[in-house]
Amino acid sequence: MESDLAKVLHPVRGSSLVKHVLASVRDAGVERVVVVVGHQAELVEEHLSNAGVTFALQAEQLGTGHAVQQAESQLGDWPGEIVVLCGDTPLLTATTLLALFETHRDTQAAATVLTAELADPKGYGRVIRGEDGEVLRIVEQKDATQEELEVAEINSGLYIFSGADLWRALTSVDAENSQREYYLTDTLEILRQEGRRVSAYRCPDPREVLGVNNPEQLREAESILAQRVGSV
Question: N or C: which end of the chain has fewer CB within 10 A?
Answer without folding.
Answer: C
